[in-house]
């Protein structure tokens, strides 16, 4: 006996509406989760340790002076959400070491800039791509003539320049070895990366490159082997059958972006997007400290000096990057990610959920010692972050 069954159907508009609502709920849930994680890492004024950073994000944030105090309203990243409010008094024992705005929108007054300058609290703005938009500090820029003279002399003397640059990259490779040994499991790629790193260290020590281009080639090949070892690290994702993730997101992919011939400013992989943010935090910390110590941030020694480019800060960042890498790898090992933690733009570029960006930015709150300077410049020994 033949029977006909009615199959329930939904029109396309209803299906799209359901997906949109589900996406909004996922976005809310993940923002709430990362916001909670930020609170657990002492971003609330009552819990924040002295000299810790205050990280802001979202839309509608504001900084203004009210009755001689700094009143800060954090932005909104999801709905519903209660707006966070901070009030800081002059000389406050819980004064943050810096205020960082991640891809935020809102307002800040000139009175705020003066207030922050008096309290020596830098204000940093970082774009969603992970680039430092501005870094304003109470130190201003009062160059120390002895330190700037050392920068000029080292950059102009070919022998002194190469000695500095070789030492810089040697320290970076040493830090890469430490990250490999502490945070990345053994594999064939790991063995090749370690062997390459030690061979490059021996090369720098016994037959040091005589030009920056030669050194850059050595460093690029060493870095390529280093990042290939990362690909053995699998990322943990929460199941999301409704909104699957790209297959290449299940592992840490190539550091090079398909959108840039060199570098990775336009990330197409979540890990690269995360690294962009954390490298920007590192840059801002080093830039503020270097300026406060009287160095000219534009007088690079290894890096090229483009107008307005903080080339000297890029020099300082080299041996510190693997420390940032280690913090991010450990973070990725401990957390399960979700598709709602990231947005893929129409051009394929990946953007971080704002509260996740806030969370990873908070990971880079450690004291950095720009060791590359210590043996080359006695005047630089006092730099500490």
The share of residues in helices is 40-55%
Number of domains: 2
State the CATH architecture of the largest domain: Up-down Bundle
Rg for CA atoms? 23 Å
Mean pLDDT: 82
Shape: flat
Largest sheet: 6 strands, mixed
Order of helices and strands: HEEEEHEEHHHHHHHEEH
The named CATH superfamily of the largest domain: CRISPR-associated endonuclease Cas1, C-terminal domain
Label this structure with key terms:
two-stranded antiparallel sheet, six-stranded mixed β-sheet, 385 residues, Ribosomal Protein L15, Chain: K, domain 2, Four Helix Bundle (Hemerythrin (Met), subunit A), flat, 44% helix, 13% strand, 2 domains, alpha/beta, disordered C terminus
What does this structure look like?
- The chain is flat, with a radius of gyration of 23 Å.
- Helix 4 packs antiparallel against helix 5, helix 5 runs antiparallel to helix 6 and helix 7 crosses helix 8.
- The chain has 385 residues and is α/β, with parallel strands linked by helices.
- The chain contains 10 helices and 8 strands.
- Helix content is 44%, strand content 13%.
């Amino acid at each position: 006996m033949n029977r006909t069954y009615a199959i329930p159907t939904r029109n396309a508009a209803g299906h799209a509406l359901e997906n949109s609502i589900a996406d909004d709920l996922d976005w809310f849930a993940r923002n709430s989760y990362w916001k909670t994680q930020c609170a657990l890492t002492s971003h609330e004024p009552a819990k924040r340790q002295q000299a810790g950073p205050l990280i802001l994000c979202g839309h509608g944030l504001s900084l203004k002076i009210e009755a001689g105090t700094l009143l800060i309203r954090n932005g909104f990243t999801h709905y519903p959400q209660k707006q966070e409010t901070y009030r800081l008094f002059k000389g406050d024992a819980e004064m943050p070491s810096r205020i960082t705005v991640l891809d935020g929108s809102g307002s800040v007054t000139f009175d705020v800039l003066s207030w922050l300058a008096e309290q020596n609290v830098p204000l940093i703005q970082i774009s969603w791509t992970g680039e430092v938009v501005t870094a304003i500090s109470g130190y201003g820029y009062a160059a120390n003539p002895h330190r700037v003279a050392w920068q000029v002399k080292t950059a102009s003397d070919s022998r002194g320049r190469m000695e500095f640059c070789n030492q810089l990259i040697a320290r970076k490779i040493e830090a890469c070895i430490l990250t490999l040994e502490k945070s990345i499991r053994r594999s064939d790629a790991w063995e090749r990366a370690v062997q390459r790193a030690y061979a490059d260290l021996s090369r720098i020590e016994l037959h040091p490159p005589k030009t920056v281009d030669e050194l850059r080639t050595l460093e690029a090949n060493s870095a390529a082997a280093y990042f290939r070892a990362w690909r053995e690290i699998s990322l943990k994702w929460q199941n999301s059958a409704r909104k699957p993730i790209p297959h290449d997101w299940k592992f840490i992919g190539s550091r090079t972006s398909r959108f840039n011939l060199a570098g990775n400013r336009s990330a197409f992989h979540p890990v690269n997007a995360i690294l962009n943010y954390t490298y920007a935090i590192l840059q801002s910390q080093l830039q503020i400290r270097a300026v406060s110590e009287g160095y000219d941030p534009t007088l690079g020694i290894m890096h090229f000096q483009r107008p307005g480019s903080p080339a000297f800060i890029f020099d300082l960042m080299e041996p510190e990057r693997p420390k940032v890498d280690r913090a991010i790898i450990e973070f990725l090992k401990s957390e399960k990610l979700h598709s709602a933690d990231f947005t893929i733009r129409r051009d394929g570029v990946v953007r971080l959920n704002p509260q996740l960006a806030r969370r990873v930015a908070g990971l880079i709150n450690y004291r950095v010692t720009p060791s590359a300077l210590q043996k080359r410049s006695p005047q630089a020994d006092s730099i500490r972050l």
